[in-house]
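Q: I'm building a small set of examples for a reading group on sequence design. Run inverse folding on the following structure and report the sequence directly after it, with nothing in between.
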C-alpha cells in the first residue's frame, strides 16, 4: 500500500494538480515555493504555499497542510481511503479522456450554430451558465482525429464508448452535458438535436445526483428528470435543483437524497399524457417517505416538464407558485 501511494503521488506533482483545478500561484522568491490564495478558506491575502521540491502544501491562514492525498481529503471532504480511490480514478486514462472530450465539445459548440440554436430553443441562453455546466456540441465525425493527436489510442476510445465498433462517433449532432461527481466527469449525456433517439449516455455508470456537492447544502431540494429541466431552473436561480437523468434513482443516488433526514424534496417530473412521469413521482415519493424525508410532488400544467414550462414563457414566480402548491402524498 505504502509503495502504491508513493507511486500515485509521483504520477502528478501537487503544483500541477492544483493548477489543473484552477489554482493560481506565483513563485515565492527564488525557492521552490509557490504562493496563492487558499482554496480551503476565504481570504484576500495569499497565505497558501506549495513546495514543489517536497510536494507539500501549507496554509498559514487556516493552518492546514499536507500532501496530494491530504489535499483531496480536505478539498473534496473525503476520507483517506476515498481520496486514494478518487485520485486513482481521476488519474486513470478514461477520466482524462472524458475531460479532453468535454473540452473539445465545448469549443465545438461555438463553431456550430446549430448547438447554440438548439439550446436557445430549449430556453437555455445564459452564456455563463452554458460555460459553468460545461455544455458542448458533438458534430460527429471529428472527435477521433482530435483525440488521436492528443495521443489517445483507438482501444481507449472504444473502451470508453466514445467510438462505436464500426469506428463511428457515439455522439453525432448532439448537445453534450458532462456529468460530474466530485468535480470529476463520470459520464457524458448527449441530447440529439435531430431525429435520432433523443437521449444517450456512454455505457458507464451515470454517477451520483447532478451537482450534488453544491445542491446537498440546501435544506430544500428540487429533483427533476432531465438536464434541460435543471439548466432552465438554474438559470432562473433555483440552484437547489438536481437531476438523476431519468425517473429511476440508482441506490447511490437514493442514498445521497436520504443522507439528511431534515431534507425536503420537491419532485418536479414531467406531466406526461400517459401519466408515466406522475406515476414515477408517486413511487419515488413513497420510497423517500419511507426514509422519513418530507416529499412534495410539483404539478405543472398538463403536458409540461420544467423545461418546456419555462420555454413556453413561465416566469420564476409562476414556478414558485407551483412549488407552494406542491402536495405531499
Ligand atoms: Zn487556508
Amino acid at each position: 500500500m505504502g509503495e502504491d501511494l508513493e507511486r500515485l503521488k509521483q504520477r502528478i506533482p501537487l503544483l500541477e494538480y492544483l493548477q489543473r483545478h484552477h489554482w493560481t500561484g506565483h513563485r515565492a522568491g527564488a525557492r521552490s515555493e509557490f504562493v496563492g490564495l487558499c482554496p480551503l478558506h476565504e481570504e484576500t491575502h495569499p497565505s497558501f504555499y506549495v513546495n514543489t521540491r517536497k510536494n507539500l502544501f501549507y496554509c498559514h491562514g487556516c493552518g492546514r497542510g499536507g500532501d496530494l492525498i491530504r489535499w483531496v481529503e480536505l478539498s473534496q471532504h473525503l476520507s483517506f481511503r476515498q481520496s486514494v480511490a478518487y485520485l486513482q480514478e481521476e488519474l486513470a486514462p478514461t477520466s482524462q479522456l472524458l475531460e479532453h472530450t468535454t473540452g473539445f465539445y465545448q469549443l465545438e459548440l461555438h463553431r456550430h450554430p446549430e448547438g447554440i440554436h438548439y439550446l436557445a430553443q430549449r430556453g437555455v441562453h445564459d452564456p455563463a451558465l452554458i460555460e459553468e455546466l460545461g455544455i458542448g456540441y458533438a458534430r460527429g465525425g471529428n472527435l477521433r482525429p482530435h483525440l488521436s493527436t492528443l495521443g489517445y489510442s483507438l482501444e481507449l476510445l472504444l473502451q470508453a464508448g466514445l467510438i462505436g465498433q464500426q469506428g463511428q462517433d457515439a455522439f453525432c449532432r448532439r448537445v453534450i452535458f458532462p456529468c460530474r461527481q466530485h468535480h470529476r466527469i463520470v459520464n457524458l449525456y448527449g441530447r440529439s438535436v435531430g431525429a435520432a433517439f433523443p437521449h444517450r449516455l456512454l455505457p458507464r455508470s451515470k454517477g451520483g445526483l447532478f451537482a450534488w456537492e453544491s445542491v446537498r447544502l440546501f435544506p430544500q431540494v428540487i429533483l427533476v428528470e432531465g438536464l434541460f429541466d435543471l439548466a432552465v431552473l438554474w438559470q432562473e436561480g433555483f440552484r437547489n435543483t438536481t437531476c438523476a437523468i431519468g425517473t429511476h434513482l440508482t441506490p447511490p443516488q437514493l442514498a445521497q437524497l436520504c443522507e439528511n433526514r431534515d431534507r425536503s424534496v420537491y419532485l418536479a417530473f414531467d406531466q406526461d399524457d400517459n401519466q408515466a412521469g406522475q406515476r414515477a413521482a408517486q413511487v419515488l415519493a413513497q420510497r423517500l417517505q419511507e426514509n422519513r424525508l418530507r416529499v412534495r410532488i410539483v404539478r405543472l400544467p398538463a403536458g409540461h416538464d420544467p423545461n418546456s414550462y419555462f420555454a413556453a414563457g413561465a416566469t420564476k414566480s409562476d414556478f414558485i407558485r407551483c412549488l407552494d402548491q406542491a402536495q405531499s402524498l
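The chain has a mean pLDDT of 92.
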